[in-house]
Amino acid sequence: MRDAFTYPNAAEQFRRAANVIPSGVYGHLGPVEGCFIPVDAFPLFSSRAKGTYFWDIDGHRFIDYMCAFGPNILGYGDPDVEEAAAKQRERGDCTTAPSLTMIDFAELLVETVASADWAFFAKNGNDVTTLAVMAARAFTHRKKIVFFKGYYHGVGAWTQKIDYAGIMEEDVQNNICIDWNDVTAVERVFAENPGGIAAIIAQPYMHGNFMDNELPADGFWKKVRKLCTDNGALLIVDDVRAGFRLDLAGSDHYFGFEADLICFCKAIANGYNVSALCGKDFLKNTISSMSYTGSYWMSAVPFAAGIACIEKMKKLDCPKLLIDKGAKLARELTKAATDYGFNLRVSGVPSLFYLRLADDPSLMLHQEWIAECVRRGVFFTNHHNHFINAALTDADIAETVDIARDAFEIIRERHPGK
Amino acid sequence: MRDAFTYPNAAEQFRRAANVIPSGVYGHLGPVEGCFIPVDAFPLFSSRAKGTYFWDIDGHRFIDYMCAFGPNILGYGDPDVEEAAAKQRERGDCTTAPSLTMIDFAELLVETVASADWAFFAKNGNDVTTLAVMAARAFTHRKKIVFFKGYYHGVGAWTQKIDYAGIMEEDVQNNICIDWNDVTAVERVFAENPGGIAAIIAQPYMHGNFMDNELPADGFWKKVRKLCTDNGALLIVDDVRAGFRLDLAGSDHYFGFEADLICFCKAIANGYNVSALCGKDFLKNTISSMSYTGSYWMSAVPFAAGIACIEKMKKLDCPKLLIDKGAKLARELTKAATDYGFNLRVSGVPSLFYLRLADDPSLMLHQEWIAECVRRGVFFTNHHNHFINAALTDADIAETVDIARDAFEIIRERHPGK
Fold first, then answer.
1. Collapsed DSSP state (helix, strand, coil) of residue A263
2. Smallest Cβ distance to B165: which of A50, A286, A297?
3. CATH annotation of B8-64+318-414
4. Considering the entire predicted model, what is its pTM?
5. Of B96, B101, B160, B239, which to mutate for an interface test with A (greatest number of A Cβ within 10 Å)?
6. Which of A83, A187, B115, B134 is most enclosed, with most CB atoms within 10 A?
7. CA dist., res. A295 & res. A293, Å (int)
8. Per-residue pLDDT tens for A67-86?
9. Which CATH number fits domain A79-316: 1.10.760.10, 3.40.50.170, 3.30.1360.170, 3.40.640.10?
10. Closest CA to B278 of B259, B291, B296
């Protein structure tokens, strides 16, 4: 049985952070949205990262299953990506005129992504989901957008909830929210809003937080695709989180349909800062007609990194590799749970698996188990899907399962009756 | 008289770009929003950049007065910034937990910027102007936002115009737009909307496009600041473009007032991809209460670059240096114009000067002069302010003025009567 980590430096530095940064560490990397429960089980800061590991500021190494919440797909500091980035950096990055690397990257995406006739680059997932929705409104001259419950499409006011701080009714009054996998509801909203729906926006499967992740039901996407086409609405796929972990040709391709617009970010350049909206030819002029740009959007280094990342992912057949690794880990974790009398549910596609200990509806047992894993060097988090990267080895998986067993043993002793 | 450049490679590559990218090159780096008139005078692509120069793909060197539209403040590839970025890159960039470098950068901003009690980091100027407006609504529980005509605060739907593609009435119906420097109008909108105005958002002076830039009138900011305070509305300064080129303590400090929220981007890290919202202590909990994050927002390399950039700007007394260089250039360009019988208006703060040949209200003569400068290696653009960087030397200024004289001579010969 390994000893539990403690984090005295993290506690001290968090106080320093909280003095000059709202929430200390905000957003998904922070204690609140990152679901670090209890906070004292989590390292909070990193001192360095390499391959599938990061090291915290208290001297502990973690096998990292969050992968910077997605961007790390080849391993931190991947040598091929770093070499390509360094070469471009010598020439120039953020300059007055863009580099030809931008064109090379757009051509590679068009060649790689099935539903891409063009690519438009920005910086955040939110930049491109927002552009997609604005483009749908510009193209259709309609206002309403259909979402699926459990969605996350970024932090733009249009995709937040009315009870969130700073959000007005005007921001969200054209949003319609229906249940995932409910074709009847899709039919109903089209019937109830004739000529009113600009687009459906959806993740390729339901990989929401605080819920078992749910794949599309048989025939779901085919029917949704047809309903959009028949009703003159666009189908927007938000592949920010799942992109390149299911299929390099796009997660719509993985599920056998074609989006009109598809949004990429996270895994597109192994952590270099770029996002992309790709789409069908008939929407290219609409995008051209819009006012949409940003200070660093044509910086060349992330494009060079993105090219190297996608080429290496192709060479590795990366999605299959990650799905196989994730499936192996899921099998062994599930078996470990069973050995200690627990029921571990693993849902979603294995390259971005979601975990839930199903023995306790309050989720507290789950949080205790996650905490004991983290305290021994396996960086999981609560109530959010995890991510596999290509640098994860069988030895890392074996070590993960050993630590997970330690954690199961601890919570079994603590809760003999569950 | 220098020969005019031609750009056969750029023309060919632009066709390639237009095949896979909407508009070929979009936004402010592209022919349309970049105001490249006539397009064939401009190089369109860069092959490398160093110091105050970039080189295009047809083998020409340009003295660059757009500075990547702002980010280049110390010179492309500044050795101190690059060294700091490289050191951090060895340790880690976009990782699952943030680095302590984030805290160091926040502390440095709080120490440097007069109105900053805290800092919140994102990626684009638009991310932080949007957060500022949402925070004002969250804090005041009011909806209306006051803008000054000629504003640009990014590409969020809330700050676009109703006739722009994809924009709905709901997006902009709470916007009130008044004239710059019109205190009476500020008083009037507060009187007409009692308890309704969440914030005034403004650039520190009017550096809009297609107009001579206009400094604040005597007492303007003092009165606006008082009206905001008296009416319980926030004062948001959008320092994305002017930030660190007027005063390292913030452009509000330069003009003798304090913002409640101030937005930085562009020059904050010499081209590394980061933006910041800074603000007053009473708003820190409001920011904490909001849902706002993005994939790469806590990447460490841009923070390290930002620290090195701000420290070097302090050492150089950068705003004064840039203002002096800009003033010298403005004086010599104005004299050159006079020598050829033209009236060149230079407006705005000299570190981000705006140019207009005032002899022709159609602006076509201005565009011809700019084009002849660009074709000889001085990268100006039409109808947008320019930017000075610290690597610009007296020799560069002398070369710029020589080329500007060539360009004046050409248009004088072409239009003897103007």
1. strand
2. A286
3. 3.90.1150.10
4. 0.98
5. B96
6. B134
7. 7
8. 999 999 999 999 999 999 99
9. 3.40.640.10
10. B259
